[in-house]
Amino acid sequence: MPELFFSLPDPLPLESGELLAGARVAYRTWGQLNATRDNVVWVCHALTANADVLDWWPGLFGEGCFFDPADWFIVCANVLGSCYGSTCPLDADPATGLGRFQDFPLLTIRDLAAAHEALRQELGLAHIHTLIGGSLGGQQALEWAASQPDAIGHLVVIATSARHSAWGIAFNEAQRLAIEADATYHENRPGGGDAGLAAARAVALLSYRGYEAYANTQTEPSDDVLRDFRASSYQRYQGNKLVARFDAYSYVVLSRAMDSHNLGRGRGGVAAALAGIRARTLVLGITSDVLFPLSEQHTLAEGIPGAVYAELDSSYGHDGFLLETAKITQALEAFYAAALAE
C-alpha cells in the first residue's frame, strides 16, 4: 500500500508545554474494514522502524500470517520525530522555513500517542480491536491504552515497560554522548552526526542482544585471530547500516522520548495507571532480554486487570520481539483462544 499522510489541523500541544505547528503523520494501511468495523489492528513501531510493518515484522504480518490483511484492517503509523515521513528535526519550522535539527522540541511517548490518536479520529475508527507494539512501540501502546481505555479492545505488548528504567536511560544517554561527540552533529545539517550515530548503534546493540547471542554468532572459529574480530566488524557493519537509513537528530529526539516514558506521571503513579487499562491484555517477555527484563513484564501483567503473561524463550535478547514471530504467533493463538472461550 502507498504511504499516506495526515496533517494535524491545529498545532499539537506537547507535554512539555510547547506547541508543534505543522505536525504531519505518515501511515500505511492494509486490508479492508469489515461491515461492523471491528477488525482494526494498529501497530506501534519501535525506535528506528517505519510505517511498513509488512516489511519489518514479516512472519507476523502479511499473507498467511497471524495478522493477514485478508482478515484484518491493519494500520501502522510513523511516530513524530522519526525521519520516515512524519514531522521530524530535518523538516522546516513553519515560522522560519529552516530545519529545526537540535532545536526540535522535546517529544514524550505521550505526545507520540496523542498524534496517533488524532489520526485514529481522522480515520473514523471508533474502536481498535488489537493494539500491538514492542519496545518503544509497546510503551506507546501502553500509553495509548491508558489515555483512551474505551477505544482499545485488546492490547499486546512485547518487551516493554510501564516506565523507562534508569538502566535504559543510561544506555540511551551513552548513545547520545556518542552522537554529540561527533562535531558534525553540531553543524545542524542533513547527515550531521552520522559517525556518532554509527557509534551509538554499536552501543545499542549490546542492549538489544546479549552475551549468548554474540557467543553464538560472533565467536571466532580460529584461535589465531589477533585483531579485526567478527564481533568488531559486526558492530561496525550494524552502525553503518543504520546510518544508511536513519538520522542522528531523529535518533536523539526518539531516544529522549523513550526516557520520558512513565505511565504514572500525572495519574497517581504507575500502579494506578495500569489499573485503569481496560483492554484485554497479553504481556510477552523475552527470557534473555537485558534491556527490558522479565521483572518489568511481571509489573505490567500484575498491574493490568486480567492481563495474560507469557514468555518467549529466546537467545536473541531484546531483538527477539522482531525475530521470534513463530513463538509470538503461538502466544497470540493461545491468547485469542482464551478470549473467545470466555
Give the N-to-C terminal Cα separation. 35 Å
Could you list the spans in which at least 5 consecutive residues all have pLDDT below 50?
A: none
Approximately what portion of the residues adopt beta-strand conformation? Answer: 5-15%
User: What is the CATH domain class of the largest domain?
Assistant: Alpha Beta
SSE topology string: EEEEEHEHEHEHHHHHHEHEHH
- CATH fold-level label of the largest domain: Rossmann fold
Binding site for substrate: 201, 319
Protein name: Homoserine O-acetyltransferase
Family: Belongs to the AB hydrolase superfamily. MetX family.
Enzyme class: transferase
What this model shows, in words?
- The protein has helices at residues 53-56, 109-122, 136-147, 166-180, 194-208, 211-218, 230-243, 248-260, 270-275, 294-303, 320-323, 325-341; strands spanning 4-7, 12-13, 19-20, 24-30, 40-44, 73-77, 128-134, 152-158, 280-286, 308-312.
- The protein is α/β, with parallel strands linked by helices and 342 residues long.
- The two termini are 35 Å apart.
- It is built from twelve helices and ten strands.
- Helix 2 packs across helix 3 (136-147), helix 4 (166-180) packs antiparallel against helix 8 (248-260) and helix 5 (194-208) crosses helix 7.
- Residues 40-324 form the AB hydrolase-1 domain.
- It catalyses: L-homoserine + acetyl-CoA = O-acetyl-L-homoserine + CoA.
- Pathway: Amino-acid biosynthesis; L-methionine biosynthesis via de novo pathway; O-acetyl-L-homoserine from L-homoserine: step 1/1.
- Keywords: Acyltransferase, Amino-acid biosynthesis, Cytoplasm, Methionine biosynthesis, Transferase.
